[in-house]
TrEMBL record:
<feature type="signal peptide">
    <location>
        <begin position="1"/>
        <end position="22"/>
    </location>
</feature>
<dbReference type="InterPro" id="IPR028081">
    <property type="entry name" value="Leu-bd"/>
</dbReference>
<keyword id="KW-0813">Transport</keyword>
<feature type="domain" description="Leucine-binding protein">
    <location>
        <begin position="27"/>
        <end position="369"/>
    </location>
</feature>
<comment type="similarity">
    <text>Belongs to the leucine-binding protein family.</text>
</comment>
<dbReference type="Pfam" id="PF13458">
    <property type="entry name" value="Peripla_BP_6"/>
</dbReference>
<keyword id="KW-0732">Signal</keyword>
<dbReference type="InterPro" id="IPR000709">
    <property type="entry name" value="Leu_Ile_Val-bd"/>
</dbReference>
<protein>
    <submittedName>
        <fullName>Branched chain amino acid ABC transporter substrate-binding protein</fullName>
    </submittedName>
</protein>
<keyword id="KW-0029">Amino-acid transport</keyword>
<dbReference type="InterPro" id="IPR028082">
    <property type="entry name" value="Peripla_BP_I"/>
</dbReference>
Amino acid sequence: MLHKFSVVVGAIAFTAVGLASAQEAVVKIGHVGPTSGGIAHLGKDNENGARMAIDELNAKGVTIGGKKVKFELLAEDDAGDPKQGTAAAQKLIDSKVVGVVGHLNSGTSIPAAKIYSDAGVPQVSPSATNPKFTRQGFKTTFRVVADDVHLGGTLGRYAVKDLKGKSIAVVDDRTAYGQGVADEFEKGVKGGGGKVVAREFTNDKATDFTAILTTLKAKKPDVIFFGGMDAVAGPMIRQAKQLGIKAKFMGGDGICTGELPKLAGGAMEDSQVVCAEAGGVEGEQKKGMEDFRTKFKAKFNADVQIYAPYVYDAVNVLVAAMVKANSSEPAKYLPVLAKTSGYKGVTGTISFDEKGDIKNGALTLYTYKGEKREQLAVVR
């Protein structure tokens, strides 16, 4: 008799669990970044930002269309490679994700955007700054950072006006991001009345810059700008010091990381490095960013590198649009996402224009004092 009772109780419990799970909808959100290769530390930073957002949303409990939702993160590695990026994008589409945050690099985000567009799945990049990304005519493409026209141009003018650069050299890594930001920097220099005395290029896997730096040294630049990522910029700064080059070193958000001093091998102690992050908070909004950094450190035992807060905001912006649209179906929530206006994120206020670009995007200028990154100014 007792045995039969146990079976009945077990059956009731099983049915209850079955009903609970039937009422909970699983919503898959994709993330893509380079979690292998030279900038894996940045890709992991991004992925952790997505995991933090997903974990918080699940802990909070979100209801969409009358059903409690469980969010699932599908994370892919594109190694910063365009071909691997499109393969990762297709894999996510085949896995039925309803939205994607990524990719990190412009060179992977731009070709992947067509795959997401063809599938009608929204893509929000936390860090792709090449203007072309949102100018391909796709309705599914968004970003939560300012583009290179703003970033590169601002840095170019800063080099002339604030750093008093008289002879400026420009180097890029020939990627969509690196070349794009370097081109805009050069325009900003010339627009500000400055002179570019040399333009050189390398690649995003290079480690020896002796030939380029020897050529630059002969031109006696007082500022060197590098368009690319920190994994290349660090060794370049170290080798420039070894060659006795005294020029100030500048770069965009790709070099503006917590890892740069380590990658430069101690060469930044007496060199002036200025970089810009494509975002920024001021006043009361600073507390939100500080709180995020504290929670991130506690969760992952790692400091924020650069883009994790933007990934975190991008995930939350996607979900806010789903909640408002009362649907996680891309076709239903995409129009709501496109109309996002005044969303208060940890990176600032997010509103999208007709191209999917962030409106009134901020830039934060930084320098380094030894191993520490220090804020110079927030500009718009």
